[in-house]
Amino acid sequence: MYINDIQQAAERIRPYVKRTSLEPSTSLSVRLGVRTSVKYELFQKTGSFKVRGAFNKMLTMTDAERAGGVVAVSGGNHAQAVAYASRELGVDAVIVMPASTPQNYVDATLGYGAVVDLQPTIAAAFNEVERYRAEGRTFLHPFDDPLIMAGQGTVGIEILQDASDATDVIVSIGGGGLAGGVSSALKALKPEIRVWGVETVGADAMSQALEAGHPVELAAITSIAKTLGAPHVSETTLKLARENLECVTVVPDAEAVEAMVFIAERLKVITEPAASCTLAAAERLREKFGAESHLVLILCGGNTGIGDLCGYI
Questions:
Q1: What is the per-residue pLDDT across 157-168, written as a single tens digit (0 to 9) for each?
Q2: Into how many domains does the chain fold?
Q3: Is the same domain home to 59 and 86?
């Protein structure tokens, strides 16, 4: 992943995405004992970072490719991102989703004008994609695509533009596209910065891959953090994790929910467990930070339905 690719992506997608804010948090700084800021990517269009990669990919497609339409696999945020980008660019989109997808994600994806194809499992959804590709649609992989990752990496550029003194960044990992893109940008622009990954128990494909030395297929996604629920990482995202991340911390759902409640009460925003787990990881890593540290938590998404939120609590 080259910084030039990420910088070009930033220019390409600028007219289509929101420049989200990075703000200091007194509540988090006191709680963690280290100066802490938050990158509010949950206020991005469609409620997560995913539109960055979707737009970067689709804006590089040829007219013929756009005319053939696109297909994507997602249990949540990538679905909405591709549906939204497709609507804005006038491209026909089919989103293949597992049947376990929360209804608010399905409704939002349909609301952006995409066709939704529900499949029994995420693995079955990936298999169904081949049929649509055979029909001529371009596949927008949720993470294993250099253009998708470059788009996600623009979050890293913005972090250092707004907090040039940042020393540590915590980023969530699903398939590894966000972590791979963001860490590549941060390390290229500031080699001494430390990037820490986080997953939840039951959606820990990256930590298992790092331990095994190769991508591992998860038998099932059991975490409530469904937007971290990639069935596996890729060779590319695994390589970037090895090169750029200090470690990957795996936290239980209960800690992600407790962090979610604290964020809602003190920062006044409702995150996803996939985002609040960054605070849970920071709690476990607090001994790694010192008096001179400036920690940044990426709140990558906020598409939690009220029913789900009440159920978590």
A1: 999 999 999 999
A2: 2
A3: yes
